[in-house]
């Protein structure tokens, strides 16, 4: 734990009224982080405070947070992602971590959603090394057959002619893949309770009232959050205990993690640590993939020529069959579409850190405990790196080779997403199987507003009509409204 003495933030930013102005600015940023930050960057440059003088706190679990700094650009990405001793990460549970010792009911906050996110320095290095075998290339490739089976079953439930919220379809699908590969549970068998608890916990966690009124009294959102947390904690603990008892590697990630042991130090994972890793991996894994796929399907729905070329490529290499691991390497346009989709509409738009010691960033002094949000989205939209940055142009990847600080949908440095290989394989398999079988026509009744902080998601979902793949790609092009129009150039 770092110790923070009260200090003022001198990074420039907008003047806001004390207390309520800061709360409003924080809530606005949490709900529309791209819109608010784009305006601030335009006015103040590439390093800006969410509020002049600081005093905001979104992510840091430490008391006396001096404030929130937003920044972007390759130099900033390099500085923040390569200085691990200065820029610490914190548990995904955010400021709730601070409440872990409040009562017996809050103790799960001490491990839940901690995992790799909540540890730093040597501890992070050791744990990351312990986890690496579960994410080794060959291990990830062994999930291919399960992924294909689950995608096949999910696609066969789509009905031609119906309108679906594709975000929800993808959420169910990526959750099923995560529960199978992580917990070894088939959704249709016995994981429905787990999924229900996960959904309930997710809904309570994102309710702003839980943060603003952390009172554990029946009927209040924070009380409901704790109820959901405790139930989920017990359910996951029982899954882990069964794996400990069996000591057989069932092919899933938990089975592997209960057996890990560091060869040099003899370090193994305690039950709480394992629970922290599993919950953090689950949370980090499925929501990001869900929204990456939804945004790519949106972009394809508005770019008929690119979609036609992509379906041609898929048909000619795969002939309607699910891709093998080897075939995934032979789909260059699919690869470029995924890269460009993750650039233009960056599903994980920010990289959050907290300074563990006084430092400077972009020429400004940052006191200890400052929370820093590095904008992956804004870096991906710099015209110096990507000419016509708002254009969805997969072809650009034939000639450009950005550095890891210029293109970092999975972040950079030694905290780079450990699940990147898993995610890319999952996304490509889903897109390939879906696009060969169906054409999805965007329904534009509702605005497409990209909102959120940890994950950038379409606020009202994304509705699409399911057709057999009939190659009528021009249907549904145009008529899009909402803030997404400021992020990507659309033809009509
Ligand atoms: C397209 C989907 C995904 C995207 C865009 C994504 C993106 C990211 C980003 C930006 C980070 C932050 C790294 C940092 O703070 O420097 C991260 C970390 C992490 N991700 Fe992912 N992720 C995805 C999928 C997954 C999956 C499928 C898993 C696991 C199965 C996963 C597990 C993790 C973990 C455990 C970390 C923490 C790494 C560490 O601190 O050492 N992610 N991811």
Automatic annotation (TrEMBL):
Superkingdom: Bacteria
Binding residues for heme: 417
UniProt keyword terms in alphabetical order: Heme, Iron, Metal-binding, Monooxygenase, Oxidoreductase
Cofactor list: heme
Membrane-crossing residue ranges in chain numbering: none
Keyword Oxidoreductase: yes
Molecular function via GO: heme binding; iron ion binding; monooxygenase activity; oxidoreductase activity, acting on paired donors, with incorporation or reduction of molecular oxygen
UniProt-listed Pfam families: p450
PANTHER family xrefs: CYTOCHROME P450, CYTOCHROME P450 12A4, MITOCHONDRIAL-RELATED
Family, similarity comment: Belongs to the cytochrome P450 family.
Protein name according to UniProt: Cytochrome P450
Organism: Dulcicalothrix desertica PCC 7102
């Amino acid at each position: 734990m770092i110790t923070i003495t009260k200090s003022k933030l001198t990074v420039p930013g907008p003047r806001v009224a004390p207390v309520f102005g800061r709360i409003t600015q924080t809530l606005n940023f949490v709900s529309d982080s791209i819109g608010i930050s784009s305006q601030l960057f335009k006015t103040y440059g590439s390093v800006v405070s969410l509020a002049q003088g600081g005093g905001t706190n979104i992510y840091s679990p430490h008391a006396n947070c001096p404030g929130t700094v937003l920044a972007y650009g390759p130099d900033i990405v390099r500085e923040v992602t390569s200085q691990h001793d200065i820029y610490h990460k914190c548990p995904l549970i955010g400021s709730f971590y601070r409440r872990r010792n409040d009562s017996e009911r809050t103790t799960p906050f001490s491990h839940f959603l901690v995992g790799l996110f909540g540890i730093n320095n040597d501890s992070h290095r050791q744990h990351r090394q312990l986890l690496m075998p579960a994410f080794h290339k060959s291990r990830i490739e062994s999930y291919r057959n399960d992924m294909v089976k689950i995608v096949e079953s999910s696609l066969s439930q789509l009905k031609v002619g119906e309108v679906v919220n594709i975000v929800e379809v993808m959420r169910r699908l990526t959750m099923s893949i995560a529960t199978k590969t992580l917990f070894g549970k088939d959704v249709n068998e016995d994981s429905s309770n787990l999924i229900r608890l996960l959904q309930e916990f997710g809904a309570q966690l994102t309710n702003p009232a839980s943060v603003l009124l952390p009172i554990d009294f029946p009927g209040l959102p924070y009380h409901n959050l704790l109820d959901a947390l405790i139930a989920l904690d017990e359910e996951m603990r029982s899954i882990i205990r069964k794996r400990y008892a069996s000591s057989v590697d069932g092919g899933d990630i938990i089975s592997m993690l209960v057996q890990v042991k560091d060869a040099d130090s003899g370090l193994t994972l305690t039950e709480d640590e394992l629970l922290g890793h599993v919950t953090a991996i689950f949370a980090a894994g499925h929501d990001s993939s869900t929204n990456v796929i939804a945004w790519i399907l949106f972009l394809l729905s508005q770019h008929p020529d690119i979609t036609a070329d992509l379906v041609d490529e898929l048909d000619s290499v795969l002939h309607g069959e699910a891709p093998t691991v080897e075939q995934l390497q032979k789909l260059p346009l699919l690869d470029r579409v995924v890269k460009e989709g993750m650039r233009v509409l960056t599903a994980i738009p920010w990289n959050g850190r907290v300074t563990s010691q006084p430092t400077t960033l972009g020429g400004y002094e940052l006191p200890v405990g400052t929370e820093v949000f590095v904008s992956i989205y804004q870096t991906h939209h710099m015209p110096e790196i990507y000419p016509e940055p708002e254009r969805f142009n997969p072809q650009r990847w034939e000639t450009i080779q950005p550095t890891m600080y210029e293109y970092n949908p999975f972040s950079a440095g030694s905290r780079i997403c450990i699940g990147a290989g898993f995610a890319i394989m999952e996304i490509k398999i889903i897109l390939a199987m879906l696009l060969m079988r169906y054409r999805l026509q965007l329904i534009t009744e509702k605005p497409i507003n990209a909102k959120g902080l940890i994950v950038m998601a379409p606020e009202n979902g994304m509705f699409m009509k399911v057709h057999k793949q009939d190659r009528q790609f021009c249907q549904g092009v145009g008529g899009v409204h909402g803030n997404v129009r400021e992020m990507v150039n659309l033809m009509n």
